[in-house]
Amino acid sequence: MILDLLVQGAQMILVLALAPLLLGFTRTVKSRLLRRRGPPVTQVYRDLLRLVRKEAVLADDASWLFRNAPYAIFSATWVAAALVPTFATGLHFSWAADLIVVTALLGSSRFFLALAGMDVGTAFGGIGSSREMLFSTLAEPAMIMIVFVVALVAGSTQLSEIAVFMVDHATLRVSLGLALIALIIVALAENARIPVDNPATHLELTMVHEAMILEYSGRHLAVIELAAALKLLLYMSLIGCIFVPWGMARPSSGFLPLVIGVATYVVKLAAGGFLLVLFETSIAKMRVFRAPEFLGSALMLGFLGTLLLFVSRSF
Amino acid sequence: MDRFALDAAHMLAGGMVLVSFMLLYQNRMFGLLNVYALHAVVLSLSVAWQAHVQDAPHLWVTATIAVVLKAIVIPVALRRMVIRLGVHRTIETVGGIGPTMLMGIGLVALSMVVMLHAAADADPIAREDLALALSVILLGLLMMVTRHNAVSQIVGFMSLENGLILAATGARGMPLVVEISIAFSVLVAFIVIGVFLFRIRERFDSVDTQAIDDYRGGRE
């Protein structure tokens, strides 16, 4: 019992500790691919530390919502990230680690972010929020469709059970391939990565995520940035957990499998980060009004996968 | 036929459907040609897998034809044609990409329902492959219907033909002569269409087929 709680606690700490590292890793690798030297991998930790030390400046019109939203966003994202199985399945809270719960937690964090963007009443925040909502009207149904595909194949929406099922009954399936591509598109859009939004710029008319948090500073900004890093880690763990679940420790299997699980998890994250950066450097950012088409294709793929599964279970 | 062979065949045929959707989504000319080349590569992989699984050496010939002719020769020729015609701009689609994709999903659903009911007692590998091949064919038709530009209509036609080859390899006992003659008749059709395109451009100063509709007259 105590041991179970310890492992679950370790997972919560692990995702929090690794998230900035993953973000720093992607930035460094991206600079290297562009033939720049780039910041060190640990730069994101330093940035966060610097922001925490700084004074938080609030606009005159900021309400209590603006002050509290960062913590709501952060806690919802952290809970979601801690629920996704990373290095072990069947953790203490894994009964709650349901794909629909994860989607809902991310949805509520997005809700608070959009509210906070509009709270101060600047034009940029409003534009960012409205665009975020435009994208989410397509990204969330797409995510739900992906959940349906995976649930129809694995017979459960609980992530631990899905991971175990995928390891035990690993087969090539058309519907899972479609779901994987759709999930990658949704993940790119949700994390404000390149074809949809540019994470590196701060003042550009097409920015979405940065526009909403433009008014934040100090510890509030640090918390939001950490939540964004956690979200990237969450989506990578989600893809890893559903589509490459090999190497995870089974419940109550001793110490060595846990170590192997952590090692493979880190390798998966590094591989995922590298692939993400490779994709980002080889593609141009699309116009904002092209992005709904891009996300719509994710929705369509999820829809197609569900359809195939309903017609014949062997797809 | 073991489980893995079946799954891999489905995966490749499903990949063809996916690339057909990418063709529908793509709205730039060179991107379209690249995706078409990818379509042909996936087709040849699928045919090669069938050759391996069914132990049918003549299918290797089909796979080779697919990769040489459709993944290399035709895209390169089309690319040169596009440059000579000067139409490497955005393609306009009728009704936008979103509704076209939705129609595409409807067509896939239609072909699934039709095939799985019509061939309910056939060999499962043939049946589901046929359903996917029919969706590729219908998506190619949809592409020909929704595009104005004559070059993208050709790409639609070629992808339709890829669907035919996919259907033919899924069903056993298709003789090699038939496959080779299909491949060469497509090549001939391609040449004829190519000549025709330049004639259209000479006559109407555009390869937009809407311009031709205006010349039809008396049908308004």
Report on the structure:
The complex is a heterodimer of chains A (315) and B (220). Chain A is mainly alpha-helical and 315 residues long. Chain A has one domain (2-311). In chain A, 70% of the residues lie in helices and 0% in strands. Chain A contains 11 helices and no strands. Chain A has helices at 2-33, 43-53, 64-83, 99-119, 123-154, 159-168, 174-190, 209-212, 218-243, 255-281, 291-311. In chain A, helix 3 runs antiparallel to helix 4 (99-119), helix 5 (123-154) packs antiparallel against helix 7 and helix 9 crosses helix 10 (255-281). The longest helix of chain A is centred in the N-terminal third of the chain and has 32 residues, at 2-33. Chain A is globular. Chain B is mainly alpha-helical. Chain B has one domain (3-216). Helix content of chain B is 82%, strand content 0%. Chain B is built from 8 helices and no strands. Chain B is globular. Chain B starts with a helix and ends with a helix. Chains A and B meet through helix 7 and helix 11 of A and helix 1, helix 4 and helix 5 of B. Chain B: It comes from Siculibacillus lacustris. Chain B: It is a multi-pass membrane protein. Chain B: The chain crosses the membrane at residues 6-25, 32-52, 58-78, 99-118, 130-147, 154-174, 180-198.
